Amino acid sequence: MVKPVYNLPERDVAETEAIRHWLETVGVHYPETACRLLKRACDWLARCQGGQMLETGESAVRHRLSTTDILVRLNMDTETLSTALLKGCLGQGALDGDRLGSEFGSTVARMVEDLARIEQLTNPRSTAGDEVQTPMSTKDRIQHEENLRRLLLGLSEDVRVILVVLAERLHLMRAIKNLQPERRAQIAQETQCLYAPLANRLGIWQIKWELEDLALRYLEPEAYWRIAGLLAERREERERYIQGVIAVLEAKFAEIGLHAEITGRPKHIYSIWKKMQRKGVDIDRIFDLRAVRVLVETIADCYAALGVVHGLWPHIPEEFDDYIMTPKGNLYQSLHTAVIGPEGKALEVQIRTHEMHCHAEYGVAAHWAYKEARGTDAGFQQRLLGMRRWLEGREEDALGEGQGSARSGFEPTHIYVLTPQYRVVELPRGATPLDFAYAIHSEIGHRCRGAKVNDRLVPLNQPLKSGDRVEILTHKNAAPSRDWLNPQLGYLTTARARNRVRQWFRQQDFEQHLHTGRELLERELARLHLVEKPRLDELAVRLNLKRSEDLLAALGRGDLQLGQVVRQLQADSQPPKTEPDISPAETRRLSAAPPSRSAVVIEGVGDLMTHLAHCCKPVPPEPIIGFVTRGRGVSIHRRDCHNICHLEGAERARLLEARWAESSPGASYPVDLLILAADRKGLLRDLTAVLADADVPLRGIESQPERSTETVSVRLTLEVHDRAHLDQLMTKLGQVPGVSLVRRF
After folding, report:
1. What is the mean pLDDT of residues 708-731?
2. DSSP H stretches of helix in 324-432
3. Residue 607: per-residue pLDDT
4. Can you spell out the DSSP letters for 624-692?
5. To the nearest 10°, the Cα dihedral for 492, 494, 497, 498?
6. Alpha-carbon Rg of the chain, whole angstroms?
7. Which of 83, 118, 624, 692 is most buried (CB neighbours < 10 A)?
8. What are phi and psi of 743, to 5 degrees?
9. 3-class DSSP state for residue 568?
């Protein structure tokens, strides 16, 4: 626990005096021009919100000052501080958008406007009434919370807006102790589900850990105070302890010439509680209450650093994990060890290379990346990474100035809009109100006759944007229009909505299409003098249709070509061909013919036994090379195979030039694929369904769950015709819900 400290006087001091005191205290850290800007912002704050009181019993002015002071301690720039002071002032008195821009600049004006929009969307109780309490299933609630986090991250291109939101939430959590227990629990639940994960994804640890601890304090007070009591030291004392450990390690690494970057943080109460819950152990079995991380250049340096740590302090054998030699299922790599450190206290040490650390923080090994594991919005992922890297880059600057744009250059491919009950719906960028209607329910889409966006009537083909609140107007006798399927008119952009409309028209016109298809087929059969009754049920099954009526209706709609159906029927009506008799001599001659199954040609050498290497499993037309083995012929590798690239000089003489044969019809080649995905029910079924639909043989499957991250790695062994076939298949597998990575194993 840490007692928060503000650059503010006692609470009973008047607002004007509190503003003056805060400006004087903060002014020593900022240049004179910045202080003048902050003074103007405080003047507008007092004019617009002076005398207003909040439900916490605190004045609005003091609340804004406290929020801004948290940002001061994060070394944020004056534009961010001015935005925090002016939040809620837009539209009050004479401060409209134009005045705001002229006095504080367009950047501050835009951020204040974004904050006003976020405030409206994240506090729907004032407009939504009891509708917001509509119950959700656990699955729907988790998805709603995820979409709401994405909505907040997508509402503003400037990451500093989210920083203001998080700082305000942190101060609110510090100030709610006098509220009613039910209200405290409601705010704490919102914090735990929405705001703490946001801070986590942006890497703002000093806000994240305190939000999580305070949320636990009000949601699980008994557990919180029990753990707090078991921690013999205050957080400040554990931080000093870690700094001492870092100093010892730095000195020891300097002695042996090992360059390392060392950081550390004491584990906070919520993290301790989560680990106790997950492992089912008490606090005396948690060995990472104090932890340091060592970043080095190479893998060899990792093990050298490990030797230093174990040489300094005795290690706890059962707490050692080598994830470098045996990575986790999500490809996470690191050395984890626990030792009895100075003063006989347990200490966890993580050792990894900078490359491993980058993968853990930004790659698929990151916890937050797996929560985004649907893999359908790469632009959004890149945008989030850009935000994190900007925040980390500005830490070197005392005031966060001059570190480049805080706005992301990546455009997400999805938008997040709200229902009238303030539930968040994910749609592709460019989606319309009609797409939204079909995303809610097919019947709502079918009966749609109009739409309101933010309480204003709009055309059904108007593109939506993140944060829009959409209400669909329906009529019981309404029906889809064929204009909706016209791409030039722009009514529908999602494949799901278009398929629902097509399906509706197919169902409505089924009888007419059935009659048309039967007439077409009968007329063509009569013209060809085919009098035998066609076996349409068998043909329908071969064409992936359920029954003969579906075949005739597809023919009438034009989904099937008449010639295609007739050729199949003609082939069925012809008698089966008999196999010609083959004499024994002919049989021997055929058997003696040289096999032509080899798909590989060894340049300048003939009649060599070849086989495809298991390590890299090449497929045409990838560049290949042969390696003469001892007793097993020539193994064919990809030219970029790890084993080939690392051959020593003597063994390189055993390489032979090789190429793929000109043609090998029907040939198939085994490949191994590694798939990383969120662990969910039905994942393997969906993956194998993709292979079945593509008529791809599956030769093997292995899965390994990673419970700590709720993920699973799946290894598939299958057969493909060539590299283009493989790439197409990997693309389809990557589109399965939950899949975050598909690559060759």
Report:
1. 84
2. 354-362, 367-371, 378-393
3. 59
4. EEEEE-SSS-EEEEETT-HHHHT--HHHHTTEEEEEE-S--TT--EEEEEEEEEE--TTHHHHHHHHHH
5. 70
6. 33
7. 83
8. -155, 165
9. helix
Highest average pLDDT, of 7-16, 34-43, 147-156, comes from 34-43
pLDDT tens figures, 517-561: 888 888 888 887 776 777 788 888 877 778 888 888 888 777 777
Q: How many CB atoms lie within 10 A of CB 291?
A: 20
pLDDT at 124: 52
Question: How far is Cα 434 from Cα 431, in angstroms, rounded to an integer?
Answer: 8
Q: How far apart are CA 533 and CA 310, in angstroms?
A: 85
Distance CA 705, CA 686 (A): 17
Report the C-alpha gap between 227 and 232 in whole angstroms. 10
Q: Which residues are registered as beta bridge partners of 347?
A: 339
The per-residue pLDDT for range 570-582, each reduced to its tens digit, is 776 665 544 444 3
Strand locations in 582-668, DSSP E?
Answer: 600-602, 610-612, 624-628, 634-638, 655-660
How high is the mean pLDDT of the chain? 81
Burial class (CB in 10 A: 0-12, 13-18, 19+), 124: middle
The pLDDT of residue 363 is 54
Cα angle 118-123-129, degrees, rounded to a multiple of 5: 140
| Cα gap 329→705, rounded to integer Å | 7
Structure tokens at 632: 């097993």
- C-beta separation of 672 from 617 below 8 A: yes
Tokens of 216: 């636990």
pLDDT of residue 611: 84
**Which one, of 322, 327, 313, 233, lies nearest residue 272 by Cα?**
233
pLDDT score of 574? 61
**Higher per-residue pLDDT: 128 or 627:** 627
Instruction: Inform me whether the pLDDT recorded for 741 exceeds 70.
Output: yes
- String of DSSP letters for 283-306: GGG---SEEEEEEESSHHHHHHHH
| The pair of three-digit structure tokens given for residue 164, joined into one six-digit string | 């203001």
Task: Say which amino acid occupies 613.
Answer: A
> Which H or E run includes 29?
none
Query: In the numeric block, which tokens belong to residue 346?
Result: 């347990």
Task: Give the model's confidence band at 451: pLDDT under 50 very low, under 70 low, under 90 confident, else very high.
Answer: very high
Question: For 171-221, how does the pLDDT look when each residue is reduced to its tens digit (9 = 90+)?
Answer: 999 999 889 999 999 999 999 988 998 888 887 888 888 999 999 999 999
**Any bridge partners for residue 414, and if so which?**
428
Q: Is the Cβ–Cβ distance between 226 and 269 less than 8 Å? A: no
Q: CA neighbours within 13 Å on the CB side: how many for 147?
A: 22
Sketch out the chain's domains with CATH numbers: 15-219 (1.10.3210.10), 235-371 (3.30.460.10), 414-508 (3.10.20.30), 510-570 (no CATH), 598-660 (no CATH), 669-744 (3.30.70.260)
pLDDT > 70 in the chain, percent:
83
Place of tokens 């003091």: 62
How many Cα neighbours within 13 Å face the side chain of 476? 0
CB 491 within 8 A of CB 434: yes
Residue 712, burial from CB neighbour count under 10 angstroms (0-12, 13-18, 19+): buried
Angle, helices 15-27/32-49, rounded to nearest 10 degrees = 160
Paired tokens of 162: 């989210």
Alpha helices in 257-353 (DSSP H): 269-279, 299-312
Beta bridge partners of 59: 53
Whether 222 has a pLDDT exceeding 50, the answer reads yes
Identity of the amino acid at 715: R
The answer to whether residues 406 and 160 touch, using CB atoms and an 8 Å cutoff, is yes
